[in-house]
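Human: My hope is that you can spare some time for a protein that puzzles me. I am handing you a single protein, as its sequence and its fold in token form. Could you go through the record with me and say what the backbone is doing? Take your time, and here it is.
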Amino acid sequence: MTAPQKLGVAPFIHKNNIMYVPADIFSILVGYDVAITEQSITITEHTKA
């Protein structure tokens, strides 16, 4: 990553000290596949063919 990326919202820390980040950050930072549907978010390791 050589330039800032748009993720829609900024990460934030909740009052219970848990950090919330957009799911797509996993794709950008570690190359995982991210699938977002109305009912779920699935984050899996990218499989090489």
